[in-house]
Structure formats: structure tokens, C-alpha cells
Amino acid sequence: MKRLYECNVLCIEKTAVSGTDGVYRLTAEYPEIPKPGQFVNLYTGSDAMLLPRPISVCDYADGKLTLVFRAGGKGTRYIAERVGKSGEKLTVSSPLGNGYPMERAEGKRAFLIGGGVGVPPLLYAARALRLMGVHTTAVLGFRDSEGVFLEEEFLKTADEVHICTDDGSRGFSGNAAECLRRIKGDNCAAFMCGPRPLLKAACELLADDSTNEIWVSLEERMGCGYGACVGCVTNVYEDGVAVMRRVCKVGPVFDGRNIIW
After folding, report:
1. Largest Cα–Cα distance of the chain, in whole Å?
2. What is the average per-residue pLDDT within 198-210?
């Protein structure tokens, strides 16, 4: 059941620029322990913007929730500039959706594959994999060198980190799927989030080995975030049959082999 908490905001800061939009890191006190891959709803408190904004969990430790998001729309800009100031309170839902099945990485090499604002939820997954003793390689894609964020945190958490930029201004020249093609191995577990073309390409690359585990967090526009409005459906296969499933309720994480791209 969804719950709402009035959380004390401890810090908010701009961490990078993605295109013309700022990327912000928000840390707040939070009473529940989320699972890697889950998300929370943020409420603006404005009568003009009643729908919540779903944001993936970037990290959680010692009762503190960290969210990293792009302030690209009216709601997220309002949260970044007005609601989320240090010392203020922010209404946050309990953890929502189904996260990554981290246990599937046991006995395998893990890849964390992300692009843009799909990168943040992979950091929390990286921490979980580190506690499991799993060798982890992060492949993180951005538009350009100015848009890179969370690199330092991944360097402290993952065993290997590959930074990719579309324009070649930093690290590997190309997207994360193209970089993955060069470094991937067999019998791996991949956990992904990012733009749909990137996820599709990475899934197709990994699906040629039946021993690979492929888990994808999909990004969709959401109305309610907990399955009531049926506004975020996606097409997947279940037992070979094409069905429509709610990303917020059944997902956001799906078996990459079952997604109908």
C-alpha cells in the first residue's frame, strides 16, 4: 500500500547540465528502505501541479534517500528551485514498483548499463552488488563531458567504470551499448536503465547468450505511479503471448527478453 511521508530536505544541489536542463541531487530523511530499481513519487504541493513526479532511487543509507533527476519539466523545476530547498519538507511516497532481482547476479559478472538520467538508479544497484561480492562493470552514457554526473560515486563502488559520450568529448566515443559490445563477456547479469533505443540495442547484444540475465528498468510517463490510472502501459511477452502491463505496478523492471520494443 502506498504511503506518504513528509520528509526533511537535507541538501539539494545542481550536479551537471544535461543539454539545456540542470541535473539535481536531492537528499532527504526517509523512513523506509527501498530496493534497487524502485522509485518514489514526489509531490510539488502546488494546486497547479497535482500529479506527482516519479523519480528513481539513486541511493539510500543511514535513513537518507538520495534522488538525482533532470529538471526538464515544470514539476521537476518547481521541486528543484522552490520545494526542495535545504531545511524544507517534501512529500514523498513509499517505495513503488518492482526493482531489480539482484540475486540473479550471484555467480556471474554484472554489468550496469545506463544513459543520461537512467544512470542514477544503477548506483544503488552497484552498492548492492558490492555487498554481494559480485564483480561489477558500469557502462554509463552521456551526451557530452559537461553532462557527466555520479562518476566519482561509481568509481568508489563498481570494479570498473566506462564513461561514454555521444560527441566523444569524454571517454568512449559513442553510446553505452556500443561500448558494451567491445567489453562484454558470457554468463553475465545486466541491469539497465535509460533511453529506449539504448536499452533495445543492449538487450539485442546480450540476448545471443542464453546464460545472460537481462533486466531493464523502463522509463514511461506516469499519472499516479501505483497502478490506478493505467497511463504507463507497455507491451511485453508472457509465456509467448503479447500482453500490456503497467510499468509502475508490474515494472518498472522487466526481463529484457520479454519486452516488445
Report:
1. 52
2. 95
Chain-wide mean pLDDT for the chain?
Answer: 92
What sign results for the dihedral spanned by CA atoms 65, 71, 76, 78?
Answer: positive
Relative to beta strand 39-43, strand 136-142 is unpaired
Give CA–CA dist 121/117, Å, rounded. 9
Q: β-strands 89-93, 233-238: how paired? A: unpaired
Residue 165 CB contacts under 8 Å (≥ 6 apart), including other chains: 141, 142, 143, 144, 145, 147, 148, 171, 172, 173
How far is the C-alpha of 249 from the C-alpha of 234, rounded, in Å?
Answer: 11
Take residue 18 and report the three cell numbers written for it: 544535461
Could you tell me the pTM of the whole model? Answer: 0.94
Q: Is the pLDDT of residue 223 over 90?
A: no
Closest by alpha carbon to 175, among 153, 200, 150? 200
Coil vs helix vs strand at 122: helix
Length of the chain measured in residues: 261
Give every CB contact of residue 204 below 8 A, 6+ residues apart in sequence: none
Alpha carbon distance 136, 125 (integer Å) = 10
Q: pLDDT tens digits, residue range 12-66?
A: 888 887 766 889 999 999 999 999 999 999 998 877 778 899 999 999 999 999 9
